[in-house]
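$ run holo --ligand "zinc ion" --emit tokens
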Amino acid sequence: MISEANYHPSTEMLKKFTAGSLLSGLNVAISAHIELCETCRHKTSKIEAKAAIDWLQTNDDQKQNDFSGLALDIVNQPQIEKPREKEAILDQIHMLDHSVSLPKVLAKAASQGLVWKQLGGGINQALMHLDDETQCEFIYMKPGSQTPMHKHQGSETTLVLDGSFNDELGHYQRADFIYRTEKDMHQPRSEEGCLCFSVLDSPLTFTKGLARLLNPFFKYQFRRSAAGRGI
Ligand SMILES: [Zn+2]
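-- output --
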């Protein structure tokens, strides 16, 4: 299950992750990457240890406030539901000729049920609802497929779960964590096929050829999935 990743979340992102200040979609992507990446697991433990030391060095009044806040947080916690017995956890996704084991955090999220939809060009998508601000999805690229050239209005986070893909900036395989911002324009393609988990915080904009005609559709789709989640 452990692979050596070449692309990792930034230190800044891991700090936000340990502080719990990221949106759920991104949180799940980082958590799944950490499950697959020993380097980031160590880094995250160090960040947590440093945060604990920093806290111990703060003045006593601040600590008192933190303790009161913590006590209040505990009191305000919703009752944790006991897991239902025999609750089905989807821990594998079945591809054409093999199965892919999912990191635990994704297996749990995917157990809400995956509905696959063909987007054309050998690209398949299964949307998941993890929070109201991001669009989270599994993307399966068939061998030899490529997405249209596109850029982002916001960020796009991609975690590779199986196979590999390339774009203008690199070659990515299992456990790699790729973060693209609105400045980046790229065209992912996959020779051997690829399963990814991806988090978008705004719609894609296609920049070339006929795919530009898809823009209204993709915006509509994003808005619709956002509307479906009550935002
Ligand atoms: Zn890593």
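-- notes --
Residues 93-228 form a domain with the Jelly Rolls fold (CATH 2.60.120.10).
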